[in-house]
Amino acid sequence: VHQNIQSLTGKEIEIELFVEKLNIHILCITEHWLTGAHPAVILRNFKMSSVFFRRTAIHGGSLIFVHNNITCKERKDIVSLSVERTVELSCVELERFIIVCVYRPPSGDFSLFEDVMEDVLKRLSVSTKKAIVCGDFNVDILLSNATTTRLLNLFKCFNLNYAFSEPTRITATSASCLDNIFHNCDILGKSIITNLRSDHCGQQITVLNNINKDKHIVKCRPITKSKLTRFKGEISSKIPALVFKNGHPDSIYGTLFNIIENEFNKIFNFKHIDFNKKIKFSDWATIGIYKSRDNLYELYGEKQYNHTPAFLQHVKMYSKTFKNVCFHAKSLYFKDQIIKSDNKVQTTWKIVNNETGKAKSRNVNFELIINDNKVTADSEVASTFENFFQSVPILLTDSLNSSPTAAQSLLRNNVNECNVLFNFKHISAYDIIKNFKLLKQKKTGDLWGMSVMVISNIIDVIAPYLAILFNECVDRGT
Question: 421-445 burial by CB neighbour count: b if 16+ within 10 A, else e?
């Protein structure tokens, strides 16, 4: 969708409901009127992927919002071609498309605009990807004049066709097609939309929906009571078979851990959950708000041909009331979330981060490059870290000309003698259980997938054996 918005500030909630209504994935906006001094505009489930701000003047500008589940990158080489108050560009590149959003002010030098756009279109033409160039060109293609001919010929030279030939800006005295979408791709559908506060209509096109999307597939291990019970039973039956006498604590601990890990992987197997389902944007919106939104859209539609002062004033007041109601409903929704939360501080910060765009999705896909080989399996990543930290003291000191005698001499000559004596003593299973219960019961798994909650289910089973191992290490001095 492209929309000349004529000031984005204060319309965020309205746009949030708008993109949900029309199931929009990419929203291109001209005349956002923002400056670099403005805080970033947050649109839920969208990222501002490319933006041009004016530096020396007010108003104008262009930007592109892209849905979070679509992978894209900003084409800074194209954005940098922008000339303030002449041709203002934002641009993103997707897997199959390059999308450019253009704002040409009516007072801008058309010849300079033409030169810059030719450079832009040349850069697009060398790519195998389809091109979509949308925006407010402030050239009425319904008229037959030299400027219109030059604009259409420019795009035609690069095999880009315009999608709309009906008015996109209607006033009491005129109807002109100033906004358009030029493209070289197959369009499944197109429409003129009048759902936002602006004296420009929006333009919407639908293309094949196989653009690159991030796969929101989460790999997790469902933890259920029945599985926890089974896990505890299997551990209880297998651990007593361990031989704890006449064995080195390291090897015995390794065997103990392997038993726990193998049973854990066997019982708590992975499940993949697909989150590519439609997400409801506006959890806070009530049925009444949705009805009012639809009524407002009808009023915006009627506004295209009904220009009586009384009606325009009615639309203005209805829009203002709707905005206030939405703001109040959203505030009540967040307040209710905080009140019902067990951790009010955490919930408050979660809301703040979401609303300010600071919330980031957690990347649980670990990856290491070891000797030009990629390590991606969680267990291999964990083992790699473990081996590194076990061997790093040896690696650091291997090349040193050292000996126990030299080390002892170095300490005596450079470190004051410690007069505080301390010693290790034997512990019991009760000590281990008592200290383990001081840990916060979290469900977050480590690199092996095991969490405090899972281990707490078997701590009473393994604590006696952990105590034996600890005491053996104390006795051996290892």
Answer: eeeeeebebeebbeebeeeeeeeeb
| Tens digits of residue pLDDT in 436-452 | 999 888 778 777 788 89
What does the pLDDT look like over 191-227, one tens digit per residue?
999 888 888 999 999 997 654 454 556 677 888 899 9
pLDDT, residue 284, reads 82
pLDDT tens digits, one per residue of 262-272: 999 999 988 87
pLDDT in tens, 2-36: 999 999 888 888 888 889 888 899 999 999 999 87
Give the tens place of pLDDT for each residue, 238-262. Answer: 887 766 656 788 888 888 888 999 9
Fold of 2-214: Deoxyribonuclease I; Chain A (3.60.10)
Q: Is 255 exposed, middle or buried (0-12, 13-18, 19+ CB in 10 A)?
A: middle
**Three-class HEC string of the chain:** CEEECCCCCCCHHHHHHHHHHHCCCEEEEECCCCECCCCCCCCCCEEEEEEECECCCCCCCEEEEEECCECCEECHHHHCCCECCCEEEEEEECCCEEEEEEECCCCCCHHHHHHHHHHHHHHHHCCCCEEEEEEECCCCCCCCCHHHHHHHHHHHCCCCEECCCCCCEECCCCEECCEEEEECCCEEEEEEECCCCCCECEEEEEECCCCCECCCEEEECCCCHHHHHHHHHHHHHHHHHCCCCCCCHHHHHHHHHHHHHHHHHHHCCCEEEECCCCCCCCCCCCHHHHHHHHHHHHHHHHHCCCCCHHHHHHHHHHHHHHHHHHHHHHHHHHHHHHHHCCCHHHHHHHHHHHHCCCCCCCCCCCCEEECCEEECCHHHHHHHHHHHHHHHHHHHHCCCCCCHHHHHHHHHHHCCCCCCCCCCCCCCHHHHHHHHCCCCCCCCCCCCCCCHHHHHCCHHHHHHHHHHHHHHHHHHCC
* Residue spans per domain, the chain: 2-214, 217-274+364-476
Read off the pLDDT of residues 134-168 as tens digits, 9 standing for 90 and up: 999 999 999 999 999 999 999 999 999 999 999 99
